[in-house]
Write a sequence for this structure.
């Protein structure tokens, strides 16, 4: 049985797709057979960030409607073995994601994959509800600002009440907080909520803190999941998050402002 | 709310929220019924005088053939009780009730299960008030003579933005935060052992002695029996600290818990 993980947030633009790409790449890089599904019908981005947009032939909706088999639609990642992408449809309506159709696809994927990562669209409408419905775990991506925190709280409520686990009365969906675009300098100035503030409000365990970094944008533009940028702090932070997801204990990093040393300042480190 | 004084109509329809007593019927035997009713009334004669009553059929287990509503109504009427309708029941039972000119109300069992599932309801208090047209006799409003001591509803998980939790018959205890954008309602008191960031409405059936207790007052709105204060007006007293809120001379007052 695969573990089904939804990456969700409520709010748009907080880094769900970046996170989905990096988490799935990180899981696959550690030898787990992983598929990442783009649920954002009509606004697909995952294939861009994974740099496979030129290889999309069939998509998720084609599989649901029986126009293609899963094997025809799955795109194999060129960089990391055992990583597959199931792209969203760019042309269909999001209602094409039916509960039964999504279930059939997820059940079939469960037979061969270890992890199924569902990249949720923004909002709390049909697409987002379909993405989270079958989840065993949820990574709630949040930016350190009040509206993002509020929307995350809303999506946590939906996870508790409208997921399959909730409807069936099973153990609740396991929730993880991933704080992205974190800027310790702005936190110190009081311009941003701190990790502690967000943890206190949302009251769910912290999976990781991804620092605000130019590297994230560059990697997205080049079609590289940022976790593959091993030298960067954002890449390392995602690697830590994946390790914690797999049960490793790792200390949280990148949460305090780095004081630049004399030499670093001299050479613009 | 402003009244439109221009209207020439002789009446206006309004939604009303009324507390009724429900008689949970398990089986019906006219003599048994009469005897039990007499016994109950003798315990609290004042309470039963001219009260409207609904017959709840959710737990009725006897045969439908024995369900003689005319005898039942007659029995009640002899004791000054007005049967106004039935709640729940299957199609046959409801047809019998209609023949006896009783009003048909939706089943209590179904409504309960709706309420237990944490409802994803955005419509806030309007919908809550509208749903509660019929409730069993509120423990907070009357010194309930029949059944009392129903334990409070307890919630262990955070109440998240957009969620609504209602305890229509008594107290509500929440052992977690109530988040901004969430709403908690109770006929009786509300206890929040965590920060109260959302809306809390106690005494929704009019119990003015109901109170709201919380570990940290950060609420958007607190209401007791319809008297409310919004966040702005709550900040003066006990903000972000443990308080209880109660009505004093129809004004909502917050008192720090250590000074209570």
């Amino acid at each position: 049985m695969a573990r089904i993980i939804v990456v969700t947030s409520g709010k748009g633009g907080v880094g769900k797709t970046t996170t989905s790409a990096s988490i799935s790449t990180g899981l696959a890089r550690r030898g787990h057979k992983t598929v990442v599904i783009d649920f954002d019908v009509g606004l697909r981005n995952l294939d861009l960030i994974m740099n496979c947009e030129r290889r999309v032939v069939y998509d998720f909706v084609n599989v649901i409607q029986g126009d293609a088999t899963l094997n025809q639609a799955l795109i194999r990642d060129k960089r990391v073995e055992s990583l597959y992408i199931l792209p969203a449809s760019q042309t269909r309506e999001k209602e094409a994601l039916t509960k039964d159709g999504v279930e059939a696809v997820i059940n079939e994927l469960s037979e061969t994959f270890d992890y199924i990562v569902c990249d949720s669209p923004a909002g709390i409408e049909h697409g987002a509800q379909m993405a989270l419905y079958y989840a065993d775990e949820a990574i709630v991506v949040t930016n350190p600002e009040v509206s993002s925190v509020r929307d995350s709280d809303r999506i946590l409520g939906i996870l508790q009440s409208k997921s399959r686990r909730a409807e069936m009365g099973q153990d609740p969906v396991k929730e993880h907080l991933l704080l992205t675009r974190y800027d310790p300098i702005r936190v110190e100035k009081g311009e941003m909520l701190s990790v502690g503030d967000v943890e206190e409000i949302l009251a769910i365990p912290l999976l990781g803190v991804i620092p605000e970094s130019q590297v994230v944008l560059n990697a997205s533009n080049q079609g590289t999941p940022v976790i593959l940028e091993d030298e960067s702090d954002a890449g390392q932070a995602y690697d830590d998050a994946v390790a914690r997801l797999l049960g490793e204990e790792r200390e949280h990093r990148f949460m305090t402002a780095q004081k630049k040393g004399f030499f670093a300042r001299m050479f613009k480190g | 709310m402003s009244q439109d004084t221009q209207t020439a109509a002789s009446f206006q329809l309004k939604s009303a929220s009324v507390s009724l007593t429900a008689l949970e019927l398990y089986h019906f035997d006219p003599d048994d019924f009469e005897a039990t009713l007499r016994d109950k009334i003798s315990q609290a004669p004042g309470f039963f005088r001219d009260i409207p009553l609904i017959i709840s059929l959710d737990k009725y287990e006897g045969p439908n053939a024995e369900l003689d509503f005319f005898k039942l109504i007659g029995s009640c009427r002899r004791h000054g009780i007005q049967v106004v309708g039935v709640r729940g029941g299957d199609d046959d039972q409801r047809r019998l009730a209609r023949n006896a000119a009783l009003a048909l109300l939706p089943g209590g069992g179904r409504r309960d299960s709706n309420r237990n599932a944490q409802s994803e309801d955005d419509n806030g208090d309007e919908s809550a008030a509208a749903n509660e047209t019929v409730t069993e006799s509120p423990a907070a409003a009357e010194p309930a003579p029949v059944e009392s001591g129903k334990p409070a509803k307890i919630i262990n998980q955070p109440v998240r933005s957009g969620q609504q939790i209602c305890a229509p018959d008594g107290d509500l205890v929440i052992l977690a935060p109530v988040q901004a954008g969430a709403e908690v309602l109770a006929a009786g008191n509300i206890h929040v052992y965590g920060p109260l960031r959302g809306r809390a409405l106690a005494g929704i059936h009019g119990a003015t002695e109901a109170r709201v207790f919380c570990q940290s007052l950060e609420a958007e709105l607190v209401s007791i029996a319809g008297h409310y204060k919004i966040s702005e007006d709550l900040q003066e007293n006990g903000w972000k600290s443990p308080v209880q809120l109660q009505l004093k001379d129809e004004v909502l007052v917050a008192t720090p818990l250590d000074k209570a």
Residues 30-43 of chain B form the longest helix (14 residues).
